[in-house]
Amino acid sequence: MSSVSYGDNKHFEHLKLPMTWAVMGVVGLVCIIAALMLLGDRSEQVEAEAYARRQGFDSAAGPVNNVLSWPVHKVGDGTNWLDDYLFAVSENRILRKKVAELSQYENMYKQERDLNSRYEKLLNLRTEPALEMVAARSVSVSRGPFANNRLIDAGSKKGITFGNPVITDQGLVGRIVGISPDVSRVLMVTDVTSHVPVMVMRSDARAMMNGDGNTGYTKLDFVRGKDSVREGDQILTSGDGGIFPRGLPVGEAVKGVDGVWRVRLYSNRGPIDFVKVVKFKDFSQLPDASTLLRSPPVSDILPPPAMPKVDPQSQASVSAAASSATSSAAASTPATPAAQVKPPVTRASSSSSSAPRPRPASSSSSSVATSTPALKPYTPEAAPAAAPSTPTGTQP
Amino acid sequence: MKPLLKRGLFERSPLNRGMRGGMAAKIVGPWDWIILPALISVAATIVLATAFQPFGLYLPEPVTPFLLAFAWPLIRPSYIAPFVLGALGMFLDFFWGAPLGFWTLSLMLVYAALVFARTYLIGQDWTIVFGVFVLTEIIFFTICTTFMAIDTGSVPRIFGVIEQALATGAGFPVVWYLMEKYLHADVRFQ
Predict the structure, then answer these.
(1) Which residues of B touch A185 (CB under 8 A)?
(2) Is B100 an interface residue toward A (CB < 8 Å)?
(3) Does B44 contact A at CB distance below 8 Å?
(4) What does the pLDDT average to over A190-200?
């Protein structure tokens, strides 16, 4: 093996590797690491564990973003001032018109609210309690087609937890998916991994609102029912699944050029600078899959359904007919007392029998009744004795 | 004795190249053409992610590391650049909230393709390089869309992908600037 001498002892500096292939080796190594990370990532399932590893990065990115975006915010303030200055007159006209319209609605709203509260008391409705909210400022936003996220400057120190809905004064923005002490990450409803159960206010039809990276419009999938959605219908959260509370305003229905129903988001009416995080917890404690699999089936927990009452006379006639049939069959067999006859029970017959097994009536089977609670139909509480019962329509 | 890494990254003193020592009139270190552009790319990404809508319009969201993934292998194949590019991809994954490894893998595929195509592109007119840039960008965003569709099960809006591709393509002058500045700056790059 011959060696080339350069006149110095720095052999490694003269070492010549096949550069392209060596670099490709490095590239391949990084690609393998990235592919493993991509395969192991479960962020599309929107679970707390999937975003936990981003906690440290988010907590550091918030302050850094605040520093770097300071000039941008200053420029923004300037453009806003210019915008206000140039369009003040036209905006004033529009606002006067709106105030005149809304003052009518204000009176109607007060009357309806009063009436609604009376109905709630009369019907003894279990109204949902007022939800606590935390205000926060949007620090940064990613609005590309592959990810729609937002960092806000409030975190676990203010009591924010995974899954809390995020709204603006206009409507729904998204939900919390990553939490650090001072910064939280919001998954926007426009993200490709976002799926929000919604309902159409007019028809009460249910649908699923799926994001696809479009910043202003989201898709409305799985719309059920004929004529359940019309142009301009108001879309609210349905509360199904317990992720969002029922009734948060989301947007209004529009039909896209491709014939797909979409939701024009209310939150897109203005810049999302400040948001409110709703501390909604009612349905957040859902059991995990393993707990669900270990739980017994419903048929084991619930008592058997009550059999219909049988008329004694008709039962007697049925038993007479049955006894005549058995007597004719027993003519060829040795006579045995009816009480001692036991039908031959085999494992095969009991398991493969297609006929439904008769269930004991709850009133007659005392053993079942003592072991499981009996279901009772709901009966409203009796009216107070002091209140006289008046016929309908005669109340003042 | 100064640390080797510090000397290699930040110092501009010419290395002793033996018989060819006199040829290296100027040494361009990794700080000049790898680390500093990478930091500028990170800063630009953070600034453009500010929650700010001038006159109701959204700020563009270009994939600035893509410009570096295109320019770096054309300037010179390097051992440091793939690691820095991987770090930039990880930054995008974390900062934009994409699946971990999504941007890293997509950018590394661009880098790998350009390492092989380098010999065909060096010395070409800017129109040829721009054509290859556009072609690479189309393939890059197609890969990204495919990865996202496989990972999440839903296809991102194509018009949004085109918007981001246009914003990224507007950064081609940066690619050309880097190539003009560093391609012939060091005889070791030839």
Answers:
(1) 97
(2) yes
(3) no
(4) 91
C-alpha–C-alpha distance, residues A281 and A165, integer Å = 10
- What the block records as the tokens of B46 is 């953070």
Q: What is the pLDDT of residues A32-74, one digit of tens each?
A: 999 998 888 777 676 777 777 777 788 888 788 778 777 777 8
Q: In the block, which residue shows the tokens 């029922």?
A: A246
Residue with tokens 């049925």: A318
State pTM to two decimals. Answer: 0.69
Answer for the pair A306, A361: CB distance below 8 angstroms, yes or no: yes
Phi/psi at B18 (5° precision): 65, -120
Angle at A223 between CA A221 and CA A224, to 5 degrees: 150
pLDDT-based confidence at A281, cuts 50/70/90?
confident
Q: Best of A30, A57, A173 to disrupt the B interface by mutation (most B CBs within 10 Å)?
A: A30
Distances (CA, A) of A210 to A84, A252, A275: 35, 14, 21
> For B67-100, how does the pLDDT look when each residue is reduced to its tens digit (9 = 90+)?
999 999 998 888 899 999 999 999 999 999 888 8
What backbone phi and psi angles, to 5 degrees, belong to A216? -110, -25
Please report residues of B whose CB lies closer than 8 A to that of A76.
Answer: 50, 52-54
Q: What count of CB pairs under 8 Å joins A to B?
A: 190
Q: Phi/psi class of residue A168: alpha, beta or left (left: φ > 0; alpha: ψ in -120 to 50)?
A: beta
pLDDT of amino acid B141: 95
- Residue numbers in A near B109 (CB within 8 A): 31
- A141: contact with B, CB 8 A cutoff: yes
pLDDT band, very low/low/confident/very high, at A197 (cuts 50, 70, 90): very high
Q: Which residue of A has its CA nearest to B115?
A: A20
Print burial letters for A129-142: b (CB count within 10 Å at least 16), e (below 16). eeeebbebebbbbb
Our CA dihedral for A77, A79, A84, A90, rounded to 10 degrees, sits at: -150
Burial A298-332, CB ≥16 within 10 A → b, else e? eeeeebeeeeeeeeeeeeeeeeeeeeeeeeeeeee
ipTM of the complex: 0.79
Q: Tell me: the pLDDT tens digits for A76-133?
A: 778 778 888 888 899 899 999 999 989 989 989 999 999 988 888 888 776 666 778 8
pLDDT band at A319 (very low <50, low <70, confident <90, very high): low
What is the amino acid identity at position A58? Answer: D
Q: Which chain A residues are closer than 8 Å to B49 by Cβ?
A: 65, 69, 140-142
